[in-house]
Specification:
Number of strands: 14
CATH superfamily of the domain at 125-292: Rod shape-determining protein MreC, domain 1
Order of helices and strands: HHHHEEEEEEEEEEEEEEH
Shape: elongated
Distance between the termini: 226 Å
CATH topology of the domain at 125-292: Thrombin, subunit H
Strand content: 15-25%
Number of helices: 5
Structural class: alpha+beta
CATH class of the domain at 125-292: Mainly Beta
Largest sheet: 6 strands, antiparallel, barrel
Radius of gyration: 56 Å
Length: 345
């Protein structure tokens, strides 16, 4: 037993392979693996299978760390994200407002270009005005604009749009003015037929699409399609500005006056802006205002021209006398010649 106990702590020499054998075994395995990988791409397949097998393990190992980072970043950047979203919302609202403003400015610019091109040559200044209130019924055809005496607006001032005559200012306040339209029943506008030059008066009918010409005789030369323009009378509008187009002409042999209707050129129902104009008083086409039969506007510098000088009468040139027959100086010679001329041969 003592001998058994003494030898129990020593390693057994016969257990396990020798180092040379293990080296040879590993070398053969390595060569076999290289041959398989060279011919059959075995290592790539083994790597693919190992990667597929270890991917869930990697996900399971890294998920807690990833989840913790996500939670930490979510809670840490919540205020930043909210502030960024608010800034983006504000920027979006600003861009939408600017976009709408750009469209409004484009429309306004186009409208103003049309208004400016519609100015008659006698216009000195012009001012766009927005319509803030409109009243269109059978008794009143009027609009309220956002320009007043603080902007230089005066009473009985011409109001136009890009198509034709709109009306004239009636009541003027500091920052607003009431405009009576040409279709108001209380408004009358001196016009003339552009084709013939016949002058008449266009009266409002209470309908924004119609004007009446009640003072034309039945034999007046007017037809459907004739253009009515301002005649320059009345002291508000210059001559030649478009007013309306004749749409209806009815003549009755019994009635002394013709029944004529015309459609205004101005867009009285859809206008959002109109134009106030000032005319040059020194222009020959400027409208002249009168009061009690006397003109209140005019040019004082105009004076009568001197009479032309009387032409100088030059003396007429002397006339040349023709040669006369000689008369005998003897007495009785003339009588004898006369008697000889009367006697027969």
């Amino acid at each position: 037993m003592a001998g058994f106990a003494t030898g129990s702590g020593r390693p057994l020499q016969g257990r396990g392979g020798s180092p040379g054998f293990r080296f040879a075994l590993f070398a053969i395995a390595s060569v076999a693996i290289m041959i398989l990988d060279q011919r059959f791409n075995w290592l790539e397949r083994a790597h693919y299978l190992l990667q597929a097998t270890t991917y869930p393990v990697e996900i399971a190992v890294s998920s807690p760390v990833t989840a913790w980072d996500w939670v930490r970043k979510s809670f840490a950047s919540r205020d930043v994200l909210e502030a960024r979203n608010e800034r983006l919302r504000s920027r979006l609202r600003g861009l939408e407002v600017r976009s709408m403003r750009y469209e409004a400015l484009a429309r306004e610019n186009a409208a103003l270009i049309g208004l400016r091109s519609a100015l008659p040559p006698v216009a000195q200044r012009w001012l766009p005005a927005g319509i803030v209130n409109i009243q269109l019924d059978s008794l009143r055809q009027r609009v309220l604009i956002d320009r007043g005496s603080e902007n230089g607006v005066t009473r009985s001032q011409a109001v136009l749009d890009d198509r034709g005559v709109v009306g004239q200012t009636m009541y003027v306040g500091p920052w607003s003015a009431e405009v009576i339209l040409i279709t108001d029943p209380a408004h009358a506008l001196p016009v003339e037929i552009q084709r013939t030059g016949l002058r008449t008066i266009a009266v409002g009918t209470g309908n924004s699409n119609s004007l009446a010409l009640p003072y034309l005789p039945a034999n007046a030369d007017i037809r459907v399609g004739d253009v009515l323009v301002t005649s320059g009378l009345g002291g508000v509008f210059p001559p030649g500005y478009p007013v309306a187009r004749v749409t209806q002409v009815h003549k009755d042999a019994v009635q002394p006056l013709a029944h004529v209707r015309a459609a205004p050129f101005a867009h009285l129902q859809t206008d959002s802006e109109v134009m106030l104009i000032w005319f040059r008083h020194d222009s020959p086409a400027a409208p002249l205002k009168e009061r009690n039969g006397e003109l209140i506007t005019g040019d004082r510098s105009i004076r009568p021209l001197p009479a032309p000088a009387k032409p100088v009468q030059r003396p007429a040139p002397p006339k040349t006398l023709s040669a006369a027959p000689k008369v005998s100086a003897r007495p009785g010679a003339g009588k004898a010649a006369a008697a000889g001329a009367k006697s027969p041969t």
